[in-house]
């Protein structure tokens, strides 16, 4: 039996028998007064220690396998990334000054390594390469580490998966 209360009406889920057929019972009961608080308080508490469980179908032998990285795609995407990152960051000359090329080179190297070793299509874009970019830029004491890493991440989120789909649709 599982009981939820948040108003004068109590909702109780209880099994009528041992089969998977469950019943929903409504009881009209006034709950105990709630302790004073500024926002409205809602309380939900289980009455029994044996709540319903839902067994989801799971097969330990069924795994989703992502494709291996495609080196030609990684090269092409790295070139696009480098061009677009340079264009985006060059809008903020005051932040990067004469270090812009070095900042873009560090970000491009890390992005390229990720595409060559780990990216296997939609669902495999990770945040780690972008945090690695920020760490590497800070370690080298280059300006605009956070700005460059954020711009890189936003570009990747907007284009990498779409470009992968286009790339693979041309292969068919």
UniProtKB/TrEMBL annotation:
<dbReference type="GO" id="GO:0010468">
    <property type="term" value="P:regulation of gene expression"/>
</dbReference>
<protein>
    <recommendedName>
        <fullName>Protein PLASTID REDOX INSENSITIVE 2</fullName>
    </recommendedName>
</protein>
<dbReference type="InterPro" id="IPR039349">
    <property type="entry name" value="PRIN2"/>
</dbReference>
